[in-house]
């Protein structure tokens, strides 16, 4: 079986909601490729009936979508779970591809009842929200195969749950940066930023699963350094459960004039081309899409020294990663780059080449389609 044999296959993608994060973005790219290039019948489902940016993008691409009422809380889980499994079964999928913790667990728990020919668990992080309790240990034994976007996620499944290595396939995220909708000078004018102002940004939803707090504390130290113009930090991303706390922290640190909370940004490419440096502070990640997009834009990256970010930037970028929670070390690395334009340019160029060679969409599409086709062939071959 080859990639071309995926035509006409019913392939269902399952997400936690129709909000757009890195996992949803990658899944939609693959769904669109399967539909547009290979003629697969794809559909996007989410464990939340409310529409969002993901469902809007599905409409733009002609991909059908459906929301399933669901709640994972202990008191309501066992009421909603049978209904979610019934909804998945009704899709009569040849292939069910789930992403992130709760959709992965729902898909795995219901695998035999859903009756998809192939069940694929996409591991998007290094075990966030997973545990060693019996339900999780049993569930991870159910999928036919796994895709991890990072070596750390792969190690998590193999080391924590004893999943055979040959079942966990490393397929890194694929990035292609869109053309900017606005140029650097337009972005800066819109935000009221002088052309000579040192500007950094982080693109990530303001969620407790990130670590914006360490970056804010680091930025307090950055603002005390001497520059020709006051440095500004732009935080782009959906205002999730950490937004109010981060606003309070910014006020406490007297950062009102040097931090901008932008909310969701459609023109990420334009934003990246308007700044001088990209920062990414987190405690647990696979390989963050936002870091890869910054690399593709040729930006130098300062981040947290966790395996997923290190895998993204490689050995050349390790010197610009700070220990988890160490705001002083992060500030030092930011200042080093803001004060040295030749170093920024050299490091950014290295990261751009790394993004092109290791994290292309073409590589992700090819590896994913080959895996789906070969796994289906193996399952459908009479024994």
From TrEMBL:
<protein>
    <submittedName>
        <fullName>Glycosyl transferase, group 1</fullName>
    </submittedName>
</protein>
<dbReference type="InterPro" id="IPR028098">
    <property type="entry name" value="Glyco_trans_4-like_N"/>
</dbReference>
<dbReference type="Pfam" id="PF00534">
    <property type="entry name" value="Glycos_transf_1"/>
</dbReference>
<dbReference type="Pfam" id="PF13439">
    <property type="entry name" value="Glyco_transf_4"/>
</dbReference>
<dbReference type="InterPro" id="IPR001296">
    <property type="entry name" value="Glyco_trans_1"/>
</dbReference>
<dbReference type="GO" id="GO:0016757">
    <property type="term" value="F:glycosyltransferase activity"/>
</dbReference>
<feature type="domain" description="Glycosyl transferase family 1">
    <location>
        <begin position="184"/>
        <end position="349"/>
    </location>
</feature>
<keyword id="KW-0808">Transferase</keyword>
<feature type="domain" description="Glycosyltransferase subfamily 4-like N-terminal">
    <location>
        <begin position="21"/>
        <end position="177"/>
    </location>
</feature>
């Amino acid at each position: 079986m080859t990639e071309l044999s995926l035509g006409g296959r019913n392939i269902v993608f399952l997400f936690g909601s129709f909000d757009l994060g890195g996992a949803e973005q990658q899944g939609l790219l693959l769904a669109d490729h399967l539909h547009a290039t290979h003629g697969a019948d794809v559909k996007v489902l989410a464990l939340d009936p409310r529409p969002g940016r993901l469902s809007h993008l599905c409409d733009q691409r002609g991909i059908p979508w459906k929301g399933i009422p669901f709640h994972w809380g202990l008191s309501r889980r066992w009421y909603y779970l049978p209904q979610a499994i019934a909804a998945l079964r009704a899709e009569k999928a040849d292939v069910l591809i789930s992403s992130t913790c709760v959709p992965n667990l729902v898909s795995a728990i219901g695998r035999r009842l859903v009756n998809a020919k192939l069940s694929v668990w996409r591991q998007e992080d290094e075990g966030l929200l997973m545990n060693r309790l019996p339900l999780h240990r049993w569930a991870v034994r159910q999928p036919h195969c796994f895709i991890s976007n990072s070596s750390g996620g792969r190690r998590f499944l193999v080391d924590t749950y004893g999943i055979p290595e040959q079942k966990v396939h490393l397929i890194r995220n694929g990035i292609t940066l869109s053309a900017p909708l606005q140029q650097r000078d337009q972005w800066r004018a819109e935000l009221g930023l002088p052309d000579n102002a040192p500007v950094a940004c982080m693109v990530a939803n303001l969620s407790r699963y990130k670590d914006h707090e360490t970056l804010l504390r680091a930025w307090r130290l950055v603002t005390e350094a001497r520059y020709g113009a006051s440095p500004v930090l732009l935080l782009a991303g959906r205002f999730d459960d950490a937004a109010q706390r981060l606003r309070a922290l910014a006020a406490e640190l007297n950062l009102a004039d040097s931090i901008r909370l932008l909310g969701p940004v459609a023109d990420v490419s334009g934003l990246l081309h308007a700044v001088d440096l990209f920062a990414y502070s987190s405690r647990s990640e696979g390989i963050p899409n936002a870091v890869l997009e910054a690399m593709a834009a040729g930006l130098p990256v300062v981040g947290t020294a966790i395996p997923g970010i290190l895998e993204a930037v490689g050995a050349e970028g390790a010197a610009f990663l700070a220990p988890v929670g160490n705001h002083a070390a992060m500030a030092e690395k930011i200042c080093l780059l803001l004060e040295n334009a030749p170093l920024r340019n050299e490091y950014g160029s290295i990261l751009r080449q790394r993004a092109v060679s290791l994290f292309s969409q073409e590589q992700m599409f090819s590896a994913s389609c080959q895996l789906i086709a070969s796994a289906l062939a193996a399952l459908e071959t009479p024994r």
